[in-house]
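Job type: complex structure
Entries:
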Amino acid sequence: MRILGLDPGSRLLGYGVLERERSGWRRLSSGVLRLKPNDPIPHRLAEAFTAVREIIQLHRPEHVAIEECFVAHSPRSALVLGQVRGVLLLAARLEETELHEFAPRSVKLAAVGNGGASKEQVQAMIPRLLGDCRSGLGADEADALAVAWCCANQLRSPIVRPAGTLRGAAR
Amino acid sequence: MRILGLDPGSRLLGYGVLERERSGWRRLSSGVLRLKPNDPIPHRLAEAFTAVREIIQLHRPEHVAIEECFVAHSPRSALVLGQVRGVLLLAARLEETELHEFAPRSVKLAAVGNGGASKEQVQAMIPRLLGDCRSGLGADEADALAVAWCCANQLRSPIVRPAGTLRGAAR
């Protein structure tokens, strides 16, 4: 089983794919897409959409996890972020993955054991959780792996779950 | 020459295609897509994206016009609206149309001659401007035709314009 975690932004877009092995979950692939800040928004949206579809087609995750949006931003930045989020949700839907949304608090709780953890704490914990000693994991990449990790935690606890428990969370 | 105007919403999505004829611009097609309110957001986004791509493929407009977002909403509604807007901008970009954004004030000014006009005034003026006596034009359909009309006005004045004047407005 594979899970793709996404951390959307209008300039940096973090992604991380986790794969389940006998011994636990391991990082299969992760990185950051850098969208050109001088490109018009529609160009950046097309770039993000195409890249995420390609990542899904390459790694074939059954699940895609994304953080619920932090809505304390200004309406202007919420609108811009919403546009990027929209094309990512679209890519996940068109590739027939199962979409899951998690509150930022749940993601931090799963990664650090503390819902109020800092970005730096998430960044420090993710390589340890995945037994992955690669240093220099960027914040956006760590956040994407953290939301995938949170999803992995929820999926693995009840091995058999009633249909629809998580599906449709992304309303 | 053809222009597609779009009025995005998370439940109702207005569209209108104008075509230039010798005598002026006429309405070629218009309507409202009703997105199912009980469907999860990713399903609605996929429905909106597919429908708008199909409208573009059917009518082959060279230009797509959309209102700049009214950002006085709450961050929550800006995020939801942003998601819909994102997939429409993406559809326009992937179909290689030229995208134009207009301030709500410019759209009302073009349609009614008054930047502070009401929705009802726009709804009443659009059929007259297009010499189209069809009654019962809905607000979302009228808004979509109004933004296309605003774009038509800007395109027709200087027949030859310097490259890039409007292109890239959707930043």
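Summary: The domain at 2-156 of chain B is CATH 3.30.420.10 (Nucleotidyltransferase; domain 5). Residues 158-171 of chain B have pLDDT under 50 and may be disordered.
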